[in-house]
Specification:
Blueprint (H helix, E strand, L loop, with lengths): L3 E5 L2 E4 H25 L3 H25 L2 H4 L16 H18 L4 H26 L13 E2 L13 E2 L2 H19 L8 H17 L10 E3 L3 E2 H23 L7
Antiparallel strand pairs: 1-2, 3-4, 5-6
Helix pairs in contact: 1-2, 1-5, 2-4, 4-5, 5-6, 5-7, 6-7, 7-8
Length: 261
């Protein structure tokens, strides 16, 4: 809705970047606090982890974004520098962040599964503000709608297309989904039975919800595996749900059990 906040000395402050920064700051605080409280981990290690996660999220998000239109971005490669500060794919960030975080935990002899459980809730915090940023910028927009939920984007810098037409606010649908997952994880945490369970629940709930929200997405440049039936993101969602089922069954038998009320 409001992609640009203010221009100072010729530099534009974008709402997307500001909201991402707020989410990252809150996510860092949550991770540091709970890693120290629950696992006794030095906050300095979390600071290094945060830097690595930000880099992995940036690289993964941009790489998957380029894959949506490889003919343009890789021919010539200089096109990758166009709109460099915008245009990210969450699944790309997620698929790069997970192995980076696991590698960091193992390298620094940190408990992998308990840290992933903390990272799950951290992810919902950062992602929630990210989707608010998407709404402000107009990216990840929905298809036209006549329903009362429709939102009209009018700002000339908004990425939502077309302007002046009511669209499904899929950014807000997803923000609501992520906020719901945040609340569910915090409630479920009391009844968690094995380490890594929160992380798997997070991935499963998001993948299922994202698969449904994709039906209402209007930015078709993200691409389809089967035209108008199965998008790239829906395919990734299906793969991730399958992966969650495999690891859930495996960890429920082998991971350390937790005695909670």
């Amino acid at each position: 809705m409001f992609p640009e906040i203010i221009e100072i000395a010729g530099q534009t402050i974008y709402s997307y970047g500001v909201l991402i920064a707020i989410g990252a700051a809150l996510g860092f605080y949550y991770t540091s606090h709970h890693a120290k409280k629950e696992l006794g981990i030095d906050p300095d290690k979390i600071q290094t982890l945060a830097i690595m996660i930000i880099l992995a999220a940036f690289i993964g998000g941009k790489f998957f974004y380029y894959l949506e239109e490889p003919g343009f971005y890789f021919n010539p490669p200089s096109n990758m520098l166009k709109n460099f500060r915008t245009g990210f794919v969450f699944y790309g960030s997620l698929l790069f962040v997970i192995p980076t975080a696991v590698w960091f935990f193992r390298k620094n002899k940190l408990p992998v599964l308990p840290m992933l459980d903390i990272i799950a809730i951290t992810g919902t915090i950062v992602h929630f503000f990210g989707r608010l940023g998407c709404f402000a910028a107009g990216c990840c927009y929905g298809i036209p709608t006549d329903s009362a939920l429709g939102v009209i984007f009018t700002h000339e810098a908004s990425k939502a297309k077309p302007h002046h037409v009511a669209l499904h606010p899929t950014q807000l649908y997803e923000a609501t989904l992520i906020l719901s997952i945040f609340l569910i994880l915090n409630m479920f945490k009391r009844y968690q039975r094995f380490q890594g369970q929160l992380f798997l629940v997070y991935i499963a709930l998001y993948a299922l919800g994202r698969g449904v929200i994709e039906i209402f997405r209007g930015d078709i440049r993200r691409g389809f595996i089967i035209d108008d039936i199965l998008s790239h993101s829906q395919l990734i969602s299906l793969v991730m749900v399958g992966g969650v089922l495999y690891f859930y069954l495996r960890l429920s038998k082998k991971a350390p059990k937790l005695n909670k009320g």
